[in-house]
Every structure is written in C-alpha cells, then in structure tokens.
Fold this sequence. Notes:
Layout: H1 4-18, E1 24-26, H2 33-39, E2 44-50, E3 53-58, E4 62-67, E5 73-78, E6 88-93, E7 97-102, E8 106-110, H3 112-120, H4 133-141, H5 147-150, H6 162-172, H7 185-205, H8 213-216, E9 245-249, E10 252-256
Antiparallel strand pairs: 1-6, 2-3, 3-4, 4-8, 5-7, 6-7, 9-10
Amino acid sequence: MPEGHMLHRIARDHTEEFGGQCLAISSPQGRFANGARQLDGATLHSVEAHGKHLCYHWSGEKLLHVHLGLYGKFRLHPIPVPEPRGQVRLRVVGKDKAFDLNGPSTCEVLTKEQWAAVQQRLGADPLRIDGDVELVWQRISRSRVAIGSLLLNQSVIAGVGNIYRSEVLYLLGIHPEIPGQSLAREQVDLLWTKLQSLLRIGVKYNRIIIPEPKDIGKPRSRMNREERLLVYKRSHCSKCNSMIESWLLGARKVFACPKCQLR
C-alpha cells in the first residue's frame, strides 16, 4: 500500500495537470458508472490528500473520494488515450492528458459532510497544515499499545506505512515494542517533526529517501534503492554493524537494530 507521501504527490500533480479543466469522466469497467455520470463534464477545482485518502473537489460541490488500498494504481496517459488496460474503474480525460484508476479499494462520490466524516476517523497528517501534534500526543500517551503498532494505526497518525515506521523509529533510537504511554512528550514531538521532514522529502522526489546526502556522499536524486533506506529490509545496522532484527508487529514486518534501539 502506498504511504502518505505518494498520495500528497498525486494530489499535487493532479491539481496541476487537471485543475481548472472541464473533464470527461467515464468508468470503462462499469463499476463506477453511476458516479462517473454525476462527475462527467464537471470542472476539477483541486485535489487534497489526508493520509492515504484522496479527495477531488469538483464544481457543483461534488467530491470524489479515492483510497488506493493494496492494489489501486493510477496510470497517466497522453491524448489521444489508449484503449483501457485491465479493469479501469475510473478514466479522467483532460485537454492534454488523461489518467486511469485501476483496482482502488474505494472510489465514490461523497458530500462535504461525508468527506468530513472520513477525515474525523483519521489521525493528524504530518503533511497537512491542519496536522496537530497535540492530538497525536493525546492518542499515543494514553495507549499501552506498542509504538510500532500505533504508527500503522491511521487514526493516530495518517499516512505512515510500514517503511516510514521502521525508519523513523530507527533514526530516533526508539524500539518498536515500547508502549506509546512510555514515550516522553519530547520524543513524540521529535517523532512528529521527523515524519514531517521525511514525508516532505518523499513528496519532492516521489520516493522514500531516509539518509542525508552528506552521509551517503551523493545527492538524493542519485541515491539507488539500497542507499535510500537505513533499516527496512537491511541486513546490518549502518551505525554499529549489528544484525537487523525483524518480526511481525501490527500484522506487518518491522525492522530494528537491537543495540541502537533498546527496549
């Protein structure tokens, strides 16, 4: 499942590429035919992301809610558009470009009130202006659940996935099994600001990049796949050379250094 940086990048790109245009909307697969009819010919105003959710704002106060889930994928096309590839739930055609959406877990037309209800179920998003670390602190400090599990809970912090949770805890020297209520306020504040920084880098480069360029000896744009991560799926710790441990936590495999991240 894509992490929050990718959804914010999609929101930014789709706003820039399709915003202000009267768009042709269809559902080649047919499963979104009714929703496509409601949106066809509407003008796209903007696209926003909240965690792993997208909301497209159209003229006539119409909203489109998309959650990619495990299998959802966007494909960008030039004009004229090619024949649909696979089960295309949604096709959006503009003046110069078009995009297809395949396999999302959610693709639905909502009212403003319904979108607000979706957002109320989500935690604070580090990439949003309205992201509130105080709300994050309240939810983490009251929980006996391991911080590694809390970071995957989208009602605590929205947008963090399996890679970012392992990497941010490694950077801060926090063991994934430590209960949320055992963390100090300063640690939660650092967690929040570090996630903001990492996710912003992810949006800029459209990929997860953890190390600083000075530590790798090359700019972020030239880092290869292995160089972009420090602990996730790595064999040894880059700091102490200990073997990285991995185990299931929150139904996903987490990675940590047993010496640099003491329990």
